[in-house]
Amino acid sequence: MRFDEAYSGNVFIGANPQLEQAQTVIYGIPMDWTVSFRPGSRFGPKRVREASLVLEEFSPYLSRDLSEFNYFDAGDIPLPFGNPEKSVHEIGAFVDQVLQKKKMPLGIGGEHLVTWPIVREVHKHYKQLAVIHLDAHADLRTDYEGEILSHATPLRKIAQLLGPENVYQFGIRSGTKEEFEYAREHIHFYPYEVLRPLKEVLPSLKGRPVYVTVDIDVLDPAFAPGTGTPEPGGIHSGELLEAIHAIARSEVEVVGADLVEVAPAYDPTEQTAVVAAKVIREMLLGFSR
Length: 289
Prior knowledge:
Blueprint: E1 24-29, H1 44-51, E2 58-59, E3 64-65, E4 71-76, H2 84-100, E5 104-109, H3 115-125, E6 130-134, H4 154-162, E7 167-170, H5 177-186, E8 188-190, H6 195-201, E9 209-215, H7 237-249, E10 253-260, H8 271-287
Parallel strand pairs: 1-4, 1-5, 5-10, 6-7, 6-9, 7-8, 9-10
Antiparallel strand pairs: 2-3
Helix pairs in contact: 1-8, 2-3, 3-4, 7-8
């Protein structure tokens, strides 16, 4: 997929039509081929872009304005419907192009499997990479119903690639017994909570390249009902924003990020898409170099 021309569809608020001037490339990953409960996250990127129009370009949290930053919306990666293996390849190939141009990739999913090929490509450029993962689910299975390419497996694959000691998980409140045992033994694992342990961990990551992946279901369904696998007992939207700000104000080097699992069909109020758009705005303003 070429992405050096302005996307002709709806774009995230304030996107610059010139790629070469951009520091960050936003792109959609419309894939939900392996979901285990409710499909529809392939429509998330489009709806989040549309919802971004309700936002101001100024962030009072960071005292920064989108007009001060250059970012390019490349549109959605065209993916082969129902083919996880080829889709994973296409996602990786696209992210490689972004990184070759020395831009930061910021993805909008799509199911969480999409994070696996992204991190695999980012790791080729940043060998000391660490991953910060905010989610309701551990995503640490080796397979789901015999399928190794599943939205339940990306963090296990990432842990095997980077070394589990380079994975930091926050907010997890759902998983198998095996997943929780693996996480507690091998990973920097902080179940149920996000903000307090995140703030404690960030100084230890000073100076390191970090990839940030956020599953919208880290939020309680009261704040984000529009997702494929809602899990009660999550954090509120203000805490998620504060977590993004804590990362932005830390001395880690964010080299890529994504927000996944927005499924618009299950939230006619559109509050899920709006909070996702706001989180992405804060990522843009806080993470862009």
